[in-house]
Write a structure and sequence with these properties.
Two copies of one chain form a homodimer. By secondary structure, chain A is mainly alpha-helical. The first copy, chain A, has seven helices and three strands. Helix content of chain A is 70%, strand content 7%. The structure holds a DNA duplex.
DNA sequence: TCAAACTTTCAAAAATTATTGAAAATTAAA
DNA sequence: TTTAATTTTCAATAATTTTTGAAAGTTTGA
């Protein structure tokens, strides 16, 4: 496998994987491209490399910046904007975990809490609803802690210790 | 909030959340319904409760069974099939983690490994590709271990210890 | 100020994914 | 067997999501 093949393989894998951490194909592919590019890329560069339209590129770059994993960069004397990705994969994971927690987990926790606190009228279906949503609530909170603390903290000793412990 | 409201709130939340752990709305809603139902439900019950078609119900139940989180149950003297969900949320998490590892993470790890092992021709772009895919590979393996061992193992002492440690 | 370089927006089109419903298949009782 | 109950399949349709591209907007330098 040569460079071009490997690059394309990586970009398309990352792209299809994207859907599964909650971002669309183009967005994930742009991210993949920036991640392995030694130099910042312009919008033109990205459009050309991935064969996607200007609008698509613009919108998805914005979203990546909202996620905090892609940054604008300006080259002096150039009008064009250039983009880079967060290159440190630990920091990348931290940022993604943080955002997913904020966007998905926390709202869910809130609702699970509300639902699990309805009045117990003594019926078996109410009891079951309360029991299960309470259990999910607890699990979601544990997950939230793990995402924010374990993956999160700059200190990654916990993860290391854990992997050693368990491997 | 009364029972009906709480139930609907839970089902629709779980439904929209579904997309984000990789399953579609109907599938997640069926799962939610079974999770809080004290009794096994028939296909008719599910169709009626969620207002979805027979075909849709049938297909999504099958997928839930493929995931190993919903089971068929037969009532004696009845022709109809009934369905229940795995009710233990720890076990549910374990099963989901296991399946996601198998379906998504492991194939990705394989590709990251292939890509990161191309020949280094000395160019900066090849170096960067190798460096970044190696880092992702390592991270993906750590994640895989965590999903299968930490969430996975019946013994949940690790998780408990961890939460205590870090909370 | 104007004009050129560049980016963003957004309605329309395309692509993808989910859902329906009726016909075919299966199952089990008579 | 035959028949009735039930489930599965799958082509057609609907709903949703993504992408395009051109017009509108913005920024900068002359």
């Amino acid at each position: 496998m040569n460079y071009e093949e490997a690059k394309n393989r990586f970009i398309s894998t990352w792209g299809s994987l994207g859907t599964l951490w909650g971002i669309n194909k183009a967005m994930a592919q742009i991210h993949a491209l920036l991640l392995i590019s030694p130099e910042p890329l312009s919008m033109e560069d990205i459009m050309e490399e991935l064969h996607i339209s200007r609008g698509n590129t613009s919108m998805n770059l914005r979203q990546l910046m909202d996620w905090g994993i892609v940054f604008k960069e300006n080259k002096i004397g150039e009008r064009k904007e250039y983009f880079t990705s967060e290159k440190n994969v630990q920091e990348l994971a931290r940022q993604i975990a943080k955002e997913r927690s904020r966007r998905e987990l926390q709202p869910t926790i809130k609702i699970l809490n509300d639902v699990s606190n309805i009045d117990d009228d003594g019926s078996s279906k109410t009891k079951e609803l309360i029991k299960q949503t309470k259990a999910l609530h607890e699990m979601a909170e544990t997950l939230d802690i793990m995402m924010n603390k374990v993956v999160g903290q700059g200190n990654n000793w916990i993860t290391k210790a854990l992997v050693k412990l368990v491997k």
